[in-house]
Structure formats: structure tokens, C-alpha cells
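Reagents: none. Just compute today. LRC43 protein.
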Amino acid sequence: SVSAAFWEHLRHLGLQDFPCGLGSWNKSRFDACTRPREGQPGLGADPAGQEEAMPLGDESPEALMELLSDWHSPWALPPDCSPQDQHLREMAVLAPELVHGSRIFQVLRSLRIVGKGVEEVDDGLLQLQQLEELILSANQISSITSANLPRTLKVLELCCNAVADLQDLCTQPPPELQHLGLGYNRLCGPLQDKYLTADFWPNLVSLDLSFNNFTDLLGLVSQLSSLQKLRILVLQGNPLVLIPTYRGFLVDSLPKLSILDDIHIGPDERHQFHGLARQPELIRSKARVVVSIGEIKGVPDPSARQPLEVGSEAPVITYSYCVMYKF
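Predicted 3D structure written out:
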């Protein structure tokens, strides 16, 4: 589940272990700073003053922070870690009480769990009351219950999973969601088209549906046209992009769109395709794919062989080749 992966991730960050958390390396500093303020963290104290009164064995905040940032340090995070991970580590040094136990639920705004074999999005996420970004790419999620998602979500990324049905996700979706990433899943049109409307996603700005199995261009566009705030749309990798008038029809049908398939829509292109949306008869349900075979390496070249003389009894060698394409 996502919750299990979340706690495992926190253990990996070591927020309660040196140089983070509260221990012999910094406990006296926090005791000295909190007593005069009745339990409030004294983060505004003068570092020089702290160093003068620092007992033996204590480390300054600067020294602890350097252990997190210096890539030679054994406590440094790997270069590909998320900014949120780095932020949590820094908080665990400067104000460890804020990321201790259940208090971390009030701090976390972004959660990134990628390639951890997650299958279930459970209700444990509801504890993250301030969560705005949830990235669950490259897992094994086939279904999501929207009731288990925090209502504060603005970004939901589910790329490279096994999602085939959006019904459960659209039962009670996060109302403020601005980006929905569903690329590289198992969605098929036209059954799923009806869930891609403003009734479910009134604030959606960015939508990624790439590399699924959407086939009905007219039906999909009729649903997407209700998304008045949509500016970025990715459909590449779906069968419907093989339709010759695909891009022009979409550009003219969705006048507020700014980027289609990672390509900016300029005024010239919009003028070029003006009026195409009013000609649905140009949309064909079939597409022709022309494949040209260039140079082939590793097979004998028939033209390089000497032709046999008439009446020759030399053996004849025949080669057969099979080229297969999978769509």
C-alpha cells in the first residue's frame, strides 16, 4: 500500500537519526533555547552564542547541515532525491520537533513514491492533510478510490501503472486538482471518455493520457471541450493520433489549449486549422501506415552472388525473410 511505502521511505530518510532528529549531538542546544520560551523552538538564537556555550559532544546547526549537503558525506542524500526529501532532512536538523511522529503529517506537501511495487492507494493518505502533490509513477496500481485521496491535492501523477478504469477515481475526485497524469496505463476509449469532463475535474490545467488505447477522436474531444481551464494535453501514443487530421482538429476544437503533445500551439498553426472543427466528416476511422525498409545489416546480399551458368549442377541456396510489425 501507499502507506507502507510512505513509512518505509521515512525510515530510509532517517529523520530521527544523526545528523537529524534530537540526540546527544544537539539536545542541549534545544533545551537551552526552549526553556526561556516555554516550549517554543528557539531557532533565532545567535549561532556564535550557541557555539560558545556548546557542551562537549554537541554539533552546531551549520556543521549538521553541511553533513547533509556535502556529497562526500555518508549522510548526504543521492542526487536524484526529491526537493521534498531534502527539505524534510533540513527541518529535522533545524526543528526536529516539527517532523517527529504524527506531526510530519502537517508538514508534508509533496509525496513521491516511484517504482516501489505499490498496488493499493489506501486511506492512510488522508492523514496528510496538507498534501498537494502525489506522484505514484511506475507502480502496479490498477484502481484508485478517490475517497482515499486528500482533498487538497493539486497534482496526481499515475504514469506507468495498470489503471484501466476511472470510475472509482471519479466518484469523489479532489476538487482543486490541476494536473492529472495517466500516461502509459490501460485506458480504452470510448468507455473512459465520459470521465474526462469538467463535472469531475473543474480546475484541470494539464492532462496526460499518452500511450493508452483511446480510439474515438470525436467522442474524446466532445468531452474534453468542457474542461475550460485545460491548457496542456498529451495524447501521443494512442491509436487516434494516426488519424491524418488529428492535430488540426484538436487545435481548432480546443481554442484555449496552449500545448499539444509537448508542442506549443502558435497563432500561425491555429489560423492554419481554423474551421476544421466544423468538418467532422474529414475524420476517418481508419489510418494508413506506410513503412519503408532501409538498409538491413547481417543478412546475405543476393546482388553480390554470381549468377549460375545455364545447365550448371551447382547447388542452389534460397533465403526467405519475414518482417513483422506489432501495433
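Strands lie at 110-112, 133-135, 155-157, 179-181, 206-208, 232-234, 259-260, 263-264.
Action item: order primers for follow-up constructs.
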